[in-house]
Write a structure and sequence with these properties.
With 479 residues, the chain is of the alpha+beta class. It contains 15 helices and 17 strands. Helix 6 (316-322) packs across helix 8 (342-359), helix 7 (326-339) packs across helix 8 and helix 9 runs antiparallel to helix 10 (388-401). The structure holds adenosine-5'-diphosphate (ADP), magnesium ion and zinc ion.
Length: 479
């Protein structure tokens, strides 16, 4: 294997998070009953005309700017003709000759030389999604759901700059983060709103000439993307080593078997008979329009991570976990604001929240609690109103049942004693009853003080703040 280098380029399709489709006003929401979100336009009835959704342009430009691309001002659309049952129009409106964004790059971890490297973006173009075929293996029937027809897509085409499965996966992670931070796509791979075509070739380690590539279409999990790069490189190497030749072809990735299977070669490839889309006028964007979108670009993952580390002193690891999900980012920023303590906020997210998510096998977007609750709990803990153990119990109840923290604390009698006289009397009692511990503490033994704190906590049935008791005992002994 070490005599060869792997080369990989990805074509990523991202469904845009617009409310309506790209050329009609049908809803794009996921999970509606089959064929309930269709109209004459997205099913290509004769005599209908498409009208471009302006939001799609805005999202495409925003994405291009976030990915360091050059924006094409004079745009037009092209018609890609082919017949397939999931495509009732028998053509797809796309952009072949003048993609809306060109150039650009995504920064990833260099898995070969260490440090960072850039994966260049060749282009980004707008196109429309097709419907979905649902095959029933038992009956042999195929059903068609046209809801997805006409959902806007961006196709983001990378240069062949990816060298390993790790880099392919890192590239898709970074890209997904950026798309999410820009609010242009929810990138839910399990719902198909982010899918990748994986192109792979191999070449001798000392060569600069790219080998012949094969393409595996429509991979929709990190696992599949990783596995397909490794397995395909291995397959190609063994073909070459046994004297064979790689042919340029499309292969299907068989997730269950972990192998790719030939589908069609380039010679059999379809001729799409592209021509300029006659039903849509060319679209000219002004530089002012682009500049306006640029001015409103949200803070991107890289800048956000740098700011968290610089301003809040968070570790790179904590920062990267928090920035891995917009739900974490929003919770973190809200909690840090309401508590004035970014550090505590990060610790709770990295500790208790992660534990509960893992234990319940939930994703960040499944968090069902009122987001202010976490800050309320941290403030009660830091204000000495509840113990750390209680704070954890309250948060668990918030996480599971979305309880109101203050109410839950009252109902479960978790509030710590704030009766100064009682605390003082208890501390004095403990000091009086344990002269040996007191003298040990005075001679410098820290454990002796912990023992006294424990005695007080026992007498108060744990309903006191340990730091407060510690402070009180020290004061009283020093007096
Ligand atoms: P097509 O539209 O036929 O799929 P493109 O020229 O658009 O062809 O290339 C598609 C993808 O293939 C790009 O992401 C590109 O980086 C990648 N690619 C091109 N050549 C190679 C190669 N030799 N090895 C691996 N990937 C490649
Ligand atoms: Mg391709
Ligand atoms: Zn429609």
């Amino acid at each position: 294997m070490s005599n060869y280098k792997t080369v990989c380029g990805l074509e990523v399709h991202a469904e845009l998070a617009t409310k309506t489709k790209v050329f009609c006003s049908c809803s794009t929401s996921f999970g509606a009953p089959p064929n309930s979100q269709v109209c004459e336009v997205c099913t290509g009835m004769p005599g209908t005309l498409p009208v471009l959704n302006e939001r799609v342009l805005e999202f495409a430009v925003r994405t291009g700017l976030a990915l360091n691309c050059k924006i094409t001002l004079n745009n037009r659309f092209d018609r890609k003709n082919y017949f397939y049952p999931d495509l009732p129009k028998a053509y797809q409106i796309s952009q072949l000759y003048l993609p809306i964004c060109t150039g650009g790059f995504v920064e990833i971890e260099d898995s070969v030389n260490g440090g960072k490297k850039r994966v260049r973006i060749h282009e980004i173009h707008i196109e429309e999604d097709a419907g979905k075929l649902i095959h029933n293996d038992e009956t042999g029937e195929t059903l068609i759901n046209y809801n997805r027809c006409g959902v806007p897509l961006l196709e983001i085409v990378s240069e062949p700059d990816i060298a390993t499965a790790d880099e392919a996966s890192d590239y898709v992670s970074r890209l997904r983060e950026i798309l999410r931070f820009c609010g242009v796509s929810d990138c839910k791979m399990q719902e198909g709103s982010l899918r990748a075509d994986v192109n792979v070739s191999v070449m001798p380690a000392d060569s600069d000439v790219l080998g012949t590539r094969t393409e595996m279409k429509n991979l929709s999990s990190f696992r599949a993307i990783r596995a397909s790069v490794d397995a395909e490189a291995k397959r190609q190497i063994s073909v070459i080593e046994s004297g064979g030749r790689i042919i340029q072809e499309t292969r299907r990735w068989d997730e269950a078997q972990g192998v790719s299977v030939s589908m069609r070669s380039k010679e059999e490839a379809q001729d799409y008979r592209y021509f300029p889309e006659p039903d849509l006028p060319p679209i000219t964007l002004s530089q002012g329009y682009v500049d306006e979108i640029k001015a409103k670009l949200p803070e991107l993952p890289k800048e956000k991570k740098a700011r968290y580390m610089r301003d809040f002193g968070l570790s790179e690891y904590d920062t990267s976990i928090i920035c891995s999900s917009l739900d974490f980012v929003r919770l973190f920023e809200l909690t840090a604001g309401l508590t004035g303590s970014p550090k505590d906020s990060a610790n709770w997210i990295m500790g208790e929240l992660m534990r509960l998510l893992n234990e319940n096998q939930l994703a960040p977007e499944d968090m069902g609690f009122r987001r202010e609750s976490l800050a309320e709990i941290i403030n009660l803990l830091n204000g000495g109103k509840i113990s750390r153990d209680s704070a954890k119990a309250v948060f668990e109840a918030v996480f599971k049942d979305n309880v109101d923290p203050a109410e839950y604390i009252r109902e479960n009698n978790l509030e710590l004693l704030s009766d100064g006289t009682l605390l003082r009397e208890t501390a004095l009692g403990a000091i009086g009853a344990n002269p040996k511990a007191v003298s040990e503490y005075l001679s410098g033994k820290q454990q002796a003080l912990n023992y006294l704190v424990g005695q007080c906590m026992r007498m108060l049935k744990g309903k006191a703040s340990a730091p407060e008791i510690t402070k009180l005992l020290k004061e009283l002994i020093d007096e």
